[in-house]
Amino acid sequence: MPKVPKVEDIKILLRKNKESLLQELRQSKEAMRLIKKSTGASLTDLEKEKIKIHLIDICKSIPALTIFLLPGGTLLLPILIKLIPDILPSAFRDQNDNQSLSAPK
Predict the structure, then answer these.
(1) In the prediction, which pLDDT does 97 show?
(2) Is residue 11 part of a domain?
């Protein structure tokens, strides 16, 4: 039977990926600011592209989180990342160290 992620395993992964999570939060704040701005003014092409990229990242996060929460997901997600690198949001793909995304040993 696959290993079910424990709270401690999740804490370790969060610590390892803290910088990527903070980058995602910064990007989310910027996207929200741009969305608010778009209600009263036109956005530049660059601003529109930033919103598009961030919305795509959000859509990519949902399947990755779902896989991680499944029984055995801590083992399956690193395998899927190797096979389908685009499954992760951009903040996590930018990391040079792919080992930080793997399950704790």
Answers:
(1) 44
(2) yes
